[in-house]
Amino acid sequence: MEIEKLLDKIKYNDKGLVVAVAQDYRTKEVLMVAYMNKESIKKTLKEKQVHYFSRSRNCLWQKGETSGNIQKLKGFYYDCDGDAILLKVEQQGPACHTGAYSCFFNKVYDEKAVDYAIINKLYDRIINRRDNPEEGSYTNYLFDKGLDKILKKVGEEASEVIIGAKNDDKDELIYEMCDLIYHSLVLMVNEGITLDDIRNELKERYE
């Protein structure tokens, strides 16, 4: 859609602003809420770097222009009424001025639920172990031993998954599959394969 046509579809308030929600494009975590106007929308879509309108400073601002915690645009949506924008972004560093990754850290109620971002968090932790080794870390032990050791562990865990399934033990199978996933992630990091590489391949197969 042409930018000018898009701007006409958005419903702005009396100050020419529309609310915008920023969401991590990988984890789906809501990062922050801010406002945009026509100019910030244009710059965001053209530069693929998120710009907002500051109500307190009464001016346009690029997210992370001083902190370096920029937001790379990965998706732009507007809702059914045209009065709210959803930005899917790749967040560099924390999104919140407090240093928290998300502005929404004040928990009031949170029914226990599945953490759909856990694979991303585990992958990022493995990268962190590689780049910042810790004494006694099993992950660092695998990286130190190299590819052959990592491959051996992947093979062993695959065998354990088969045994768990043959034993008809759901809990054992879940446990062993988690071990296999972990060691597969270590292999991915070691070989420079990202989660997006896997997602893109799965997307192509799905389509």
Give a description of the structure:
- It is built from 7 helices and 6 strands; from the N terminus they run H-E-E-H-E-E-E-E-H-H-H-H-H.
- The chain has 207 residues and is an alpha+beta fold.
- It has 2 domains: 89 residues, Ubiquitin-like (UB roll); 89 residues, Helix Hairpins (Orthogonal Bundle).
- The strands form 2 sheets. The protein has a 4-stranded mixed sheet with strand order 2-1-6-5, with helices on one face. Strands 3-4 form a two-stranded antiparallel ribbon.
- A hairpin with a 5-residue loop joins strand 1 and strand 2.
- Helix 3 crosses helix 6 and helix 5 runs antiparallel to helix 6.
* Structural class computed from helices and strand pairing: alpha+beta
Shape: elongated
> What is the CA-based Rg, rounded?
22 Å
Q: Could you say what the CATH architecture of the largest domain is?
A: Roll
Q: Alpha-carbon distance between the termini? A: 23 Å
- Average pLDDT reading: 95
> Which topology of the largest domain does CATH recognise?
Ubiquitin-like (UB roll)
Kindly report the name of the CATH homologous superfamily of the largest domain. Phosphoribosyl-AMP cyclohydrolase
CATH class of the largest domain equals Alpha Beta
Order of helices and strands: HEEHEEEEHHHHH
Count of helical segments?
7
Domain module tally: 2
What is the quaternary state of this protein? single chain
**What percentage of the residues does DSSP assign to strands (E)?**
15-25%
Residue share in helices? 40-55%
Taking strands numbered 1, 2, ... along the chain, how are they ordered across the largest sheet?
2-1-6-5
Tell me the number of strands.
6
